[in-house]
Write a structure and sequence with these properties.
By secondary structure, this protein is an alpha/beta fold. It has one domain: HUPs (Rossmann fold, 3-Layer(aba) Sandwich). Helix content is 45%, strand content 14%. It contains 6 helices and 5 strands, in the order αβαβαβαβαβα. The chain has helices spanning 16-41, 60-73, 97-105, 125-140, 156-167, 192-211, and strands at 51-55, 77-82, 113-117, 146-152, 172-178. The protein has a 5-stranded parallel sheet. The protein is elongated, with a radius of gyration of 23 Å.
């Protein structure tokens, strides 16, 4: 019996024209990503809710935009979310993004503003914020049939997804994507902050869709 340590195989490789076709397809895919990725992530689809949920980590300019949209939308109630401003265990109970955003919005004539702060949370922060809104509504005796979440640009689609998972099918969840402060949303790839945020949110959305499972309560 002949022992063979190697064998000959035929391998197909692209020709020069084939490589040009591959590069053209890659260029088309990259152009499509630059053109459509941000609009896909930064979805705005409000459901005409009476309750507006504002993510408290937003920058002042984004909160100003949210306040203007809330006034136009005639919302009856605003709820702000967010965890501690820092991770020291003994920080003041009101030193949260939720409280900071609420204090800012109360000066913007948006109507009643409630806070739904989160505890120190190192992961699944948006999902935890959604659970805190649900807990706030239960404690306050507020019946929530629908709500609109206000989030920053490319974070909007993931925020809506996680709020929907937190509330289940009981609540109709809409979303409003606010223009991000710090980069041009139409040309996000031209700045490091824009590219980093959009790609981070895209990968975060993929991870959430594929791997995130709500923890057992």
């Amino acid at each position: 019996m002949e022992l063979r340590l190697a064998q000959k195989r035929q391998v197909w490789v692209p020709t020069g024209l084939g490589w040009l076709a591959v590069l053209a397809l890659l260029a088309i895919a990259a152009a499509a990503c630059l053109r459509f990725l941000y609009p896909f992530l930064a979805v705005t689809e409000p459901v005409g809710a009476r309750i507006a949920v504002v993510e408290g980590w937003l920058d002042p300019a984004e909160l100003d935009e949210a306040a203007a949209a809330i006034r136009r939308g005639g919302y009856a109630m605003v709820v702000t979310t967010g965890g501690p401003l820092h991770l020291w265990p003994k920080s003041p109970a009101d030193a949260t993004f939720a409280h900071r955003a609420a204090a800012y919005l109360r000066g913007k004539e948006v109507g009643p503003v409630a806070v739904a702060p989160s505890p120190i949370t190192r992961e699944n922060r948006t999902y935890k914020s959604a659970l805190m809104v649900k807990e706030w509504a239960r404690a306050a005796g507020v019946e929530v049939r629908s709500l609109d979440v206000f989030s920053r640009g490319p974070h909007a689609r993931r925020s809506r997804l996680l709020f929907r998972r937190a509330f289940g099918g009981e609540v109709d969840v809409g979303v409003v994507a606010l223009d991000p402060e710090g980069y041009d949303a139409r040309r996000w790839w031209r700045s490091s902050s824009g590219a980093r945020e959009v790609l981070e949110q895209a990968s975060g959305l993929v991870w959430t869709l594929c791997f995130f499972r709500p923890p057992a309560m």
